[in-house]
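Lab notebook: predicted structure, single chain.

Context: the supervisor wants predicted structures on file for every construct in the current expression panel, including those that have not yet been purified. This is the next one on the list. No modifications to the sequence; it matches the entry in the shared construct table.
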Amino acid sequence: MEGRPASRCRMSEKIASDIEERLRRSGADFRILEHAPVFTSEQAAIARGVELRTGVKALVCKTSDGGFLLALCPADRRVDLGLIARLEGTKRICLASPEEVREVTDCEIGSVPPFGHRTPLKTYMDRRLLENERVNFNIGLHTRSASIGSGDLLGIIHPVLF
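Prediction complete. Output recorded below exactly as produced.
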């Protein structure tokens, strides 16, 4: 993590530790994976040795009224921002900038975990993620991921399904 401020590294480690603890407390069957740094969904799937569709893409989005939410979708898909805007009752939703993502989540783009309630961000989850027996996602670091049953993730994060 060369070149990153020490405080940012400590925050990322704390986020990862908090998520690991939350997973332990949930009683879910999960695995933590250590791997080389990954910055795209494709890199993550290769590093984890899994199919791209099992990855959870966690996208911080900004609403037209200036609020933020978290949108989750399979890593091989694009999130339907128009549908989420209609569900949220807002005119428009766009992806947050890298600076906004850091400000809202304390994470870098590509390491945002699907745990919107930790920030708190309302979370929307694409139902297609539930087609996977297990899903995989970064837990606040580019070098650490979790693998968990999709139903277990649903039960832990309580998202709005779309």
